[in-house]
Amino acid sequence: MTLAVHNLEVVYEDVMLALRGASLSVAPDSIVAVLGANGAGKTTLLRAMTGLLDIHRGRITRGYVSLDDAKIDTRKAAGVVASGVSQVMEGRRVFTEFTVEENLRVGAHTQAGSGLKDKYDRIYGMFPILAQRKAERAGYLSGGEQQMLAIGRAMMSEPSYLLLDEPSLGLAPKIVEQIRDLIVDINKAGTGVLLIEQNAAMALSIADHGYVMENGLTVMDAPAATLRGDSDIQEFYLGGAGEKRSLREVKHYKRRKRWLS
Amino acid sequence: MTTFITSVISGLGTGAVYGLLAVSFVIIFRATGVLNFAQPGLLIIGVFFCSYFAVTQGLPFYVSVVLAMLVAALVGIVSERVAIRPMVGRPVFAAALVTVGLFTILLIVAFRLFDSAARTINDPWQLEQVCLLASDTGCAIPVYHNTIARFVISMVVLGLLGWWLSRSRIGLAMRATSLDQEAALAQGIDVGRVFSLSWAIGGALAALAGILLAANGSVVQATDALFALVALPALILGGIDSLKGAVVGGLLIGLISSITSTYQPIYAPWLGPNFENVVPYLVMILVLLIRPYGLYGTKEVQRV
Fold this sequence. Notes:
- Chain A has helices spanning 42-50, 77-82, 100-107, 116-126, 128-132, 143-155, 173-188, 200-206, 224-229, 231-236, 247-250, and strands at residues 3-12, 16-26, 31-36, 58-67, 70-71, 85-88, 161-165, 192-197, 209-214, 217-223.
- Chain A is of the alpha/beta class.
- Chain A starts with a strand and ends in an 11-residue tail after the last helix.
- Chains A and B meet through helix 2 and helix 3 of A and helix 6 and helix 7 of B.
């Protein structure tokens, strides 16, 4: 009962190799973090998992994505959502012209029929601020509120897995903490979480397991506690190892890593 | 005064149909982001099939109208699937140009179907009139049956459509798709189906508008497809992405050209004949100068 990616290779426009062999798995009750710098292939990984490669002219050339032993990489985006995998896209992407409640309603699109009221109540329970502003246009919410709306919208389909792409992007540290706590709550309520983040400190503080991506490969795979203690991770992703050193040593390409990328 | 009222009434009749046409553009534009220049083609195909069912096959007129709308919707779906779907993810400008090509193809098809013959659609209204206000010399304010039919049918159809779009799950999905295609996909909306549906509705509305315009007691031919272009000023006036705007724009354009055709030959004959066909475009240019997003068009929400 896991969401897993097996040795995935993705090519854009038939020429640009964005993923060269990414693998990971998310257990239903866990939070899994994917760390990596810009261009490491994190967002591509997410697109491949949710059927959004098409519109970016991307294609899976090797490997597959599975959900509980069923292949889902051949499904269209709507099919992926219907099978219980929702996502919060990078940059929030709320429908700015819609009201908060309309945004949530779109999130429940795959759940045709009744129970809309209960779903609203559940989301408003999670995010009281959204209840206060439910008739307002989403474009006028603050960044943090929009992020909450994006998460709430994704939760409207009552997914078994929630994939989050950079939920801390562009938010104040205090709001990031709030979002982090919400992710923990969502996980406790029984949703598996895949958290793609550049904010490694935040991601590793709540994750059970972590993956590190570089140049389209998952190069490291360890329990979050191990990653937090790893000296390379501390230096490259958690902001320094303490002592001062010359700039030459800081340049990470000059330094030997313990993994190959 | 009675001339003025007569002119206003007939303006409302044609204006409602312009509104219908403008809405058919808006529906497709809002879902796909493409201004569909193939609408005139869908319109004339709808008119042809109405004539085919009503005259050639001898079916009742209203049945023929519904069947013709279905055919136009089907042609819309097929055109979208064949010509527009491969353009998803490409610049919308490119897709808009594809619709120009589509327009040419549909027009050629229409010419073949009509076979240079003028056809009638056998509508029940013909040139009959009712008299709103009698005078000693006969009738002061005559109203054509087809004017009433145009106004009532257009408004009822538009009202139902607007209500359905604002309330239903599919309507919301269509609007969501127009705002952010990728985000809509990520919510599980089948964007392909939304595209098909919008083209089907657009085609059916264009067909209905064409039929209502053709119901003027005379004959139609393939070149009447260009009726549909009058919807462009209405579209710009109302704001290209607003249903309400399209209806209001259509009515205004209908009124303006009707009133112009009544008074311009009397007060400004030096402007020449058929000036009422020019006026909508003048209005369009004026609107573009003052309010580029039209009366009801969306100004983007921007958080600063």
